Protein backbone atom coordinates (compact mmCIF):
# COMPACT_ATOMS: atom_id res chain seq x y z
CA UNK A 1 0.00 0.00 0.00
CA UNK A 2 1.52 3.35 -1.00
CA UNK A 3 1.94 6.19 1.51
CA UNK A 4 -0.89 8.12 -0.18
CA UNK A 5 -3.23 5.11 -0.07
CA UNK A 6 -2.32 4.52 3.57
CA UNK A 7 -3.06 8.18 4.49
CA UNK A 8 -6.39 8.05 2.66
CA UNK A 9 -7.29 4.79 4.43
CA UNK A 10 -6.34 6.15 7.85
CA UNK A 11 -8.26 9.37 7.21
CA UNK A 12 -11.37 7.48 6.10
CA UNK A 13 -11.11 5.10 9.04
CA UNK A 14 -10.79 8.05 11.42
CA UNK A 15 -13.96 9.67 10.07
CA UNK A 16 -15.85 6.40 10.38
CA UNK A 17 -14.46 5.86 13.87
CA UNK A 18 -15.54 9.31 15.02
CA UNK A 19 -19.04 8.83 13.60
CA UNK A 20 -19.31 5.40 15.24
CA UNK A 21 -18.10 6.81 18.56
CA UNK A 22 -20.64 9.63 18.39
CA UNK A 23 -23.42 7.20 17.62
CA UNK A 24 -22.36 4.80 20.37
CA UNK A 25 -22.09 7.62 22.90
CA UNK A 26 -25.58 8.78 22.03
CA UNK A 27 -27.23 5.35 22.16
CA UNK A 28 -27.76 5.69 25.89
CA UNK A 29 -29.51 9.00 25.29
CA UNK A 30 -31.47 7.64 22.35
CA UNK A 31 -32.51 4.38 23.99
CA UNK A 32 -36.22 4.40 24.44
CA UNK A 33 -36.58 7.52 22.35
CA UNK A 34 -37.81 7.79 18.81
CA UNK A 35 -36.71 10.33 16.29
CA UNK A 36 -34.72 10.98 13.19
CA UNK A 37 -30.99 11.38 13.76
CA UNK A 38 -28.28 13.16 11.78
CA UNK A 39 -24.52 13.18 12.23
CA UNK A 40 -22.72 15.68 10.03
CA UNK A 41 -19.03 16.43 9.51
CA UNK A 42 -17.97 19.92 8.45
CA UNK A 43 -14.24 20.61 7.94
CA UNK A 44 -12.66 24.00 7.30
CA UNK A 45 -9.54 24.87 5.38
CA UNK A 46 -6.73 25.11 7.94
CA UNK A 47 -6.60 28.90 7.83
CA UNK A 48 -10.41 29.22 8.00
CA UNK A 49 -11.18 27.40 11.28
CA UNK A 50 -12.14 30.61 13.09
CA UNK A 51 -14.36 31.67 10.19
CA UNK A 52 -16.19 28.35 10.16
CA UNK A 53 -16.59 28.39 13.94
CA UNK A 54 -18.08 31.89 13.73
CA UNK A 55 -20.66 30.63 11.23
CA UNK A 56 -21.54 27.33 12.91
CA UNK A 57 -21.92 28.29 16.57
CA UNK A 58 -24.79 30.77 16.09
CA UNK A 59 -26.35 28.52 13.44
CA UNK A 60 -26.34 25.55 15.85
CA UNK A 61 -27.82 27.66 18.64
CA UNK A 62 -30.67 28.80 16.37
CA UNK A 63 -31.23 25.31 14.95
CA UNK A 64 -31.56 23.85 18.45
CA UNK A 65 -34.58 26.12 19.05
CA UNK A 66 -36.47 25.11 15.90
CA UNK A 67 -39.79 23.28 16.17
CA UNK A 68 -39.17 19.56 15.98
CA UNK A 69 -35.51 19.78 17.01
CA UNK A 70 -34.96 17.62 20.08
CA UNK A 71 -31.14 17.81 20.18
CA UNK A 72 -28.65 19.84 18.15
CA UNK A 73 -25.10 19.55 19.42
CA UNK A 74 -22.14 21.11 17.62
CA UNK A 75 -18.74 19.65 18.54
CA UNK A 76 -15.21 20.48 17.47
CA UNK A 77 -12.67 17.66 17.37
CA UNK A 78 -10.03 18.13 20.05
CA UNK A 79 -6.64 18.63 18.44
CA UNK A 80 -8.17 19.33 15.01
CA UNK A 81 -9.31 22.96 14.93
CA UNK A 82 -11.88 23.50 12.21
CA UNK A 83 -13.19 19.92 12.16
CA UNK A 84 -16.77 19.96 13.42
CA UNK A 85 -19.37 17.28 13.94
CA UNK A 86 -23.04 17.71 14.70
CA UNK A 87 -25.30 15.30 16.50
CA UNK A 88 -28.91 16.11 15.73
CA UNK A 89 -32.13 14.46 16.85
CA UNK A 90 -35.33 15.57 15.16
CA UNK A 91 -38.88 14.58 16.04
CA UNK A 92 -39.22 13.02 12.60
CA UNK A 93 -38.02 13.42 9.02
CA UNK A 94 -40.63 16.10 8.38
CA UNK A 95 -39.05 18.25 11.12
CA UNK A 96 -35.62 17.85 9.51
CA UNK A 97 -37.08 18.62 6.09
CA UNK A 98 -38.56 21.85 7.52
CA UNK A 99 -35.13 22.75 8.97
CA UNK A 100 -33.49 22.23 5.58
CA UNK A 101 -35.53 25.05 3.99
CA UNK A 102 -35.31 27.67 6.74
CA UNK A 103 -33.93 31.14 5.99
CA UNK A 104 -30.97 30.26 8.25
CA UNK A 105 -30.00 27.31 6.04
CA UNK A 106 -30.41 29.38 2.90
CA UNK A 107 -28.20 32.10 4.42
CA UNK A 108 -25.37 29.87 5.70
CA UNK A 109 -24.90 27.51 2.73
CA UNK A 110 -23.29 30.06 0.37
CA UNK A 111 -21.03 31.24 3.21
CA UNK A 112 -19.70 27.73 3.80
CA UNK A 113 -18.22 27.03 0.38
CA UNK A 114 -15.28 29.47 0.66
CA UNK A 115 -14.20 28.13 4.07
CA UNK A 116 -14.65 24.38 3.64
CA UNK A 117 -11.77 22.02 2.91
CA UNK A 118 -14.18 19.47 1.43
CA UNK A 119 -17.94 19.08 1.00
CA UNK A 120 -19.69 18.42 4.29
CA UNK A 121 -21.12 14.97 4.88
CA UNK A 122 -24.29 13.83 6.62
CA UNK A 123 -25.40 10.46 7.94
CA UNK A 124 -29.17 10.02 8.36
CA UNK A 125 -30.15 7.47 11.00
CA UNK A 126 -33.23 5.82 12.47
CA UNK A 127 -32.96 4.40 15.99
CA UNK A 128 -33.29 0.62 15.91
CA UNK A 129 -33.31 0.06 19.66
CA UNK A 130 -35.44 1.57 22.35
CA UNK A 131 -38.87 3.02 21.96
Automatic annotation (TrEMBL):
InterPro entries to which the protein is assigned, alphabetical: ABM_dom, AI-2_Isomerase_LsrG, Dimeric_a/b-barrel, TAT_signal
Keyword Oxidoreductase: yes
Molecular-function GO term, any one: monooxygenase activity
Residue span(s) of domain ABM: 36-124
Keywords: Monooxygenase, Oxidoreductase, Signal
Stored PROSITE patterns: ABM, TAT
Span of the signal peptide: 1-30
Pfam assignment, any one: ABM
Protein name: Antibiotic biosynthesis monooxygenase
